[in-house]
Amino acid sequence: MLRGPQHRLRASVAPAAALAAALLSAFGRCSVPERSDPAASALSPYFGTKTRYEDVNPELLADPVAPRRDPELPAGTCTPVQLVALIRHGTRYPTTKQIRKLRQLQGVLQAHGPGDGRRGLGAALADWPLWYEDWMDGQLVEKGRQDMRQLALRLAGLFPDLFRRENFGHLRVVTSSKHRCVDSSAAFLQGLWQHYHPGLPPPDVADMDCGPPRINDKLMRFFDHCEKFLTQVERNATALYHVQAFKTGPEMQNILKKVAATLQVPVDNLNADLIQVAFFTCSFDLAIKGVKSPWCDVFDIDDAKVLEYLNDLKQYWKRSYGYTINSRSSCALFQDIFQHLDRAVEQKQRSQPVSSPVILQFGHAETLLPLLSLMGYFKDKEPLTAYNYKEQVHRKFRSGHIVPYASNLIFVLYHCEDAKTPKEEFQVQMLLNEKVLPLAHSQGTVALYEDVKSHYKDILLSCHTSEECELPKVNITSDEL
Predict the structure, then answer these.
(1) Superfamily designation of domain 5-30+65-93+140-234+323-375+407-468
(2) What are phi and psi of 427, to 5 degrees?
(3) Which DSSP string corresponds to 218-243?
(4) pLDDT > 70: what percent of the chain?
(5) Is 0.85 surpassed by the pTM of this model?
(6) Active site includes 89?
């Protein structure tokens, strides 16, 4: 892990190569679950966006509320003056669509049991209790609330100056309208209350000093409000060509045959979607109930890597570098973050108190991935396609390591003063999932705020969501009489 401004890479190193090396070091390795987590499966690092936060940060298994003291924060002459956090909701239930596919798969197993003896894994899964119901439909689970409460406790411990009790009433909290995000914001605030008032039950969020979170889907679900994205990607049957092609490609077909043999059902009764939902059921049972279900025994690590790639293909083409509009649709959110930072700089320069020391924004994996792509992170030399799985084994774009449940991207603004001179400056540090994220322009762990703004000048000045998301006008002419 890179530490401190003194560890910036030499200028002679090509910026792109240095950033790639830093990111690979920080996020490219698989996190092996610790022995204190017996329910965890060897498949755990490969669940993509269904990955548990503790599989990215396994040290949390030992102590889930101790603040992370790594990263090294700037020297004592620098004081944090504002924190802007973009947080994905915590662990959730499967969607109704996924639950219905699981029922379909269990129906296949029950219809093709291996005779009256009903032995083997297929028979065991045919009888395995299916406890998911349609009403759950992606809602936050208790484990997800715990994810948020514990994250709040860790951040409050890591940045005590910003999360002082007297700042609680000045919190700015924004959330997506989805229940899992609204509930995540409430659980986070409850965690802060617990930090301030140990042992006292928290009041309703509406009765807290900071007031209830504000719903703002134009910020947190910008993709729903971008007509170009909706038309060219979301509703475009060909936009996910590589996802569909990979489903019928040799890697997935090998898994299909292997799973059919393992479950003792005709291969024609299975498809890539059912295989994927079986894989995700292993992840849901682990994340929600903390159990290693028999669904995990259907797959080995080689299968898991292929299924992770299938999930990453979807995220890449629908939310990341696959199409330019995926990331450009997040410009307004990016600009909103820097407007907060600008306001804090201006207030500090006028010797005024910072009006909002902590800004918390709760969204989705689909909120974070486009923004990180807009900023240039986790971009591989070659695009992910249906045909280069083997070449992408060591790719940087692994969605489970970037946006697991409760993932968070944090901007910290520091005011720095030199005791020997009247010089003052503002610096910025970024954290992804509580680890230092090397800055794209310098690969250092901290940089001058003006340098960061200069690097992203195009986005801050030239990216207008209304223009980016406007569909191109087509002039229709005809030569016919």
Answers:
(1) Phosphoglycerate mutase-like (3.40.50.1240)
(2) -125, 160
(3) HHHTGGGG-HHHIIIIIT-TTTTHHH
(4) 86
(5) yes
(6) yes
